[in-house]
Amino acid sequence: MTTITIPKLPLLLKPFFLSLFFSLFFLLFLAFSQTPHHRKTYPSINSNTTLQKLLPRSSIWTTRDWDRKVRVFANFFQSLKQRNLLSNDSKALSIGARVGQEVAALKQVGVYDAVGIDLVPYPPLVVKGDFHAQPFENGTFDFEFSNVFDHALYPWKFVGEIERTLKAGGICVLHVAISRRADKYSANDLYSLKPLIELFKRSELVDAKKDVDGFGLDTEMKPERRRLVSFSFIKLADSLF
Fold first, then answer.
1. Model-level pTM?
2. What share of the chain is helix, strand, coil (3-state, %, to 5)?
3. Percent of the chain scored above 70 by pLDDT?
4. Radius of gyration (C-alpha) of the chain in whole angstroms
């Protein structure tokens, strides 16, 4: 019978291999003995819970600033109803609605099927949504309103999404500032009417009104700079395109 002789390790290598063996054993022990570790998560600034802590509804909805803005918007929406551009039966959307004064004003004048979108939601009046890619189906709304056109990084997408989600025969109303910087957050500024009108490929201009009270746009603006231009567009039938 043949005997296999295993050569003895040099004396200096024995401590190295012993250390390696115990290290591997310890690592395997840790791997199988610990329970799975889940990374702790924290509510983001966009979460409803955090927003309610930062902006309690009771404090926002009872301020003088809230009441004044709702009153200004309500007066404007009432004037649209008198011109047959808005009705109580309209399904309405406010684009870039912030904490929802426009939506509250629509409901106040009888347009109860109204909602707003903004990057930061404020329920129940405002849901989360990007005005460059509205979270709604084609032809959802009868009426869309916005005074944040100057905040759009991609104006053509902003208008394109309005025309996509607006029903044929629906009305879009925009409040814009002309020939001056709208506010400190503006991403684009209008210096004439033509570029805005040309963005609407499937609609036509039906009404334009100067010197609209823009108080609801920015309370930090000086009174003489709160005068805006109101544009109303009607979406044409899809069969025409």
1. 0.70
2. 35, 20, 40
3. 62
4. 30
